[in-house]
Amino acid sequence: MRNYRLLLVLVLSLVIALNVVRASDESKVHIVYLGEKQHDDPEFVTESHHQMLSSLLGSKVDAHDSMVYSYRHGFSGFAAKLTESQAKKLADSPEVVHVMADSLYELATTRTWDYLGLSAANPNNLLNDTNMGDQVIIGFIDTGVWPESESFNDNGVGPLPSHWKGGCESGEKFISTNCNRKLIGAKYFINGFLAENEGFNTTKSRDYISARDFIGHGTHTASIAGGSFVPNISYKGLAGGNLRGGAPRARIAIYKACWYVDQLGIVACSSSDILKAMDEAMHDGVDVLSLSLGAQIPLYPETDLRDRIATGAFHAVAKGIIVVCAGGNSGPAAQTVLNTAPWILTVAATTLDRSFPTPITLGNRKVILGQALYTGQELGFTSLGYPENPGNTNETFSGVCESLNLNPNRTMAGKVVLCFTTNTLFTAVSRAASYVKAAGGLGVIIARNPGYNLTPCRDNFPCVAIDYELGTDVLLYIRSTRSPVVKIQPSRTLVGQPVGTKVATFSSRGPNSISPAILKPDIGAPGVSILSATSPDSNSSVGGFDILSGTSMAAPVVAGVVALLKALHPNWSPAAFRSAIVTTAWRTDPFGEQIFAEGSSRKVADPFDYGGGVVNAEKAAEPGLIYDMGTQDYILYLCSAGYNDSSITQLVGNVTVCSNPKPSVLDVNLPSITIPNLKDEVTLTRTVTNVGPVDSVYKVVLDPPLGIRVVVTPETLVFNSKTKSVSFTVGVSTTHKINTGFYFGNLIWTDSMHNVTIPVSVRTQILQNYYDEN
């Protein structure tokens, strides 16, 4: 298998980068982007692609053999196997906007909906007002689907939506009858991956060469957003209840573009396959598109066609499709958020009001509550140890979790072992457990930064996480006792108070590294320990269900909410849904407590952690006012961001000439205000559209960032049957005399029924980080 560079696809915190090395005369897949379609007949478009290739290669046969995909629905282009010299000839053609080499992407619950106020038992909520999302189609580009899962039963589901043009494609262990009125579409895309990886053996691969899901990630995300009702589901006795997706009567369309690579133990997705999946989804009639995929830092600019998700999403949004993407799992570091284009709805991950306390009882009868997903038998009082040199030997001892294998087996055999780690990944826990088990140990207690991800250890081996303070308490007990012992009891499920909502440690944070004036992420949603359907082939599957964490799980939560809103407001633009979700979000948890952001030190969450806040579906259904945008607004953004006319033309597919002077990026009509470099006073503009009562009057309420003056003109907005939209200006100045970090506040329009809130983030920069030489 060749080495290749992978852009991350968010399964927990996995990030792998591999580089492409090929000879210059070797054929490899290139994506030839031609911009907007010049004809509505897709067969005509494809024929024009074949003619272009035939002219280049000299024959129709060679053109047919070279062609991988024809993109003919959302935009015009094709993927073909070309040498570098052939690609250059095509790139020089006046009909061609851009030619780029293919690349690969790699893959990045029951309580959720009650927590978000969408209980099926309540007859008067958004869930029931929209008939649970019936007739709305959610598309997923992922690892496929396990169609037999009960989460995709079509009990009580009506006829197919009239706007559906897709279907189900047969393949390995998948036939068209695997689909039903719930799972209405299933296609797979592997040509790009195979063209780049000719050594991939489709007959020996454990993955299915069809839309069937092998690892379970796609099944999990699809059932989170739109899974049907499944009663009495639990995971080893934890997180149990009646399982369903956010929009349980929405229809699901699967586009498998991600494939398990046995030799590397990873999942990879060719960008040409992803683009083809997006192109097909646009043709098929999906209303919402959910992707748990993303690039690595440093990001490509939005006009750089190597960012295939931003490119495909631009065309999807232009056709009215809401594109929801995971924000990444590289938190808590700043400037790590992914999928930052302003036409994408980018999602951060938060916790639920649920935890899994696991009692640890020391020999001195002190009880410590750790966190685990341990469902085995109680481990009675057992010898407890911490590997450290007693001072009379030259042997190696280590209490670091990742180095437990360096210790003599006798230090761990028959014991529960305490270790410490600074590693943020769950692999530190799983390795520690495997080392202790291999040495004959009986369990492991891992002291680490609080808030990191929970996953059961293999074979239900007792592994419990505690923070450094509690870990130090345990270590002091070990050192003060000749024969320390410990008892570990099975984990329990605790829901509601006193468990608070937090932004997950792994969730990638802003500011936006490409365009700091564009707030990302947009919104937060539950993405920690989410129970949902999976493939029975998954190693951690229990009865076809699994608990997973990541922004991969948070994105489909929002996709499910958007599906409900789409059923209620079928004519809204994608930007309107984003605005409604951001301006109505929770900024406190359901108990009115502040939401904190987990990290190296816990802090109160701010817009760079979770955008507008935690998604509040009920409020988003009636936002009052929206900050709307269309394709032309996104083009104005691209001009304001400093991209040149030719690069914007490449993305848009039509000749674009920016005005001179260029518009201000601060005027982009987002439901947020982010000023990364404030020195002198600035004035920016926003426009709001009334989607509430026709005759409405809104007054402004300001909560300015510390040391920042904010003046809004006018202070009152009046709407009636003739006045649907009103613009206002915001003057912003600083009282700070030095460079500062970001300070945060809010701008609120209220009519006593609605509080339309947008976050305001301002950083004073008296001395800029860079300057232009005169």
Word description of this protein:
This is Subtilase family protein. Residues 29-107 form the Inhibitor I9 domain. The chain is an alpha/beta fold. The chain folds into 4 domains: 28-101, Alpha-Beta Plaits (2-Layer Sandwich); 112-353 and 501-621, Rossmann fold, CATH 3.40.50.200; 357-492, 3-Layer(bba) Sandwich (Glucose Oxidase, domain 1), CATH 3.50.30.30; 625-629 and 669-764, Sandwich (Immunoglobulin-like), CATH 2.60.40. The protein contains 17 helices and 40 strands.
Name some characteristics of this structure:
Rossmann fold, 17 helices, Glucose Oxidase, domain 1, Alpha-Beta Plaits, 7-stranded parallel sheet, globular, 7-stranded mixed sheet
Largest sheet: 7 strands, parallel
How is the CATH topology of the largest domain named?
A: Rossmann fold
The general outline is globular
Give the distance, in angstroms, between the N- and C-terminal Cα atoms: 52 Å
Looking across the biggest beta sheet, what order are the strands in?
A: 8-11-7-14-15-16-27
By DSSP, the count of extended strands is 40
Mean pLDDT: 88
What is shown here, in short?
The protein is α/β, with parallel strands linked by helices and 774 residues long.
Task: Please describe the topology of this protein.
Blueprint: E1 6-7, E2 28-35, H1 42-57, H2 60-66, E3 67-71, E4 76-82, H3 84-91, E5 98-101, E6 104-106, H4 112-115, H5 126-129, E7 137-142, E8 183-188, H6 191-196, H7 217-226, E9 230-235, E10 238-243, E11 251-256, E12 258-261, E13 266-270, H8 271-284, E14 288-291, H9 308-318, E15 322-326, E16 345-350, E17 354-355, E18 357-362, E19 367-371, E20 379-385, E21 416-420, H10 427-438, E22 443-447, E23 463-466, H11 468-480, E24 485-488, E25 494-495, E26 502-503, E27 523-526, E28 530-533, E29 545-548, H12 551-568, H13 574-583, E30 596-597, E31 603-604, H14 607-610, H15 617-620, E32 625-626, H16 631-640, H17 645-652, E33 673-678, E34 682-690, E35 696-703, E36 708-713, E37 716-719, E38 725-734, E39 742-750, E40 755-764
Parallel strand pairs: 1-6, 7-11, 7-14, 8-11, 14-15, 15-16, 16-27, 20-21, 21-22, 22-23, 26-30, 33-40
Antiparallel strand pairs: 2-4, 2-5, 3-4, 6-13, 9-10, 12-13, 17-25, 18-19, 18-24, 20-24, 28-29, 30-31, 32-34, 34-38, 35-37, 35-39, 36-38, 39-40
Helix pairs in contact: 1-2, 7-12, 8-9
Organism: Arabidopsis lyrata subsp. lyrata (Lyre-leaved rock-cress)
Signal peptide: 1-23
Domain Subtilisin-like protease fibronectin type-III: 667-762
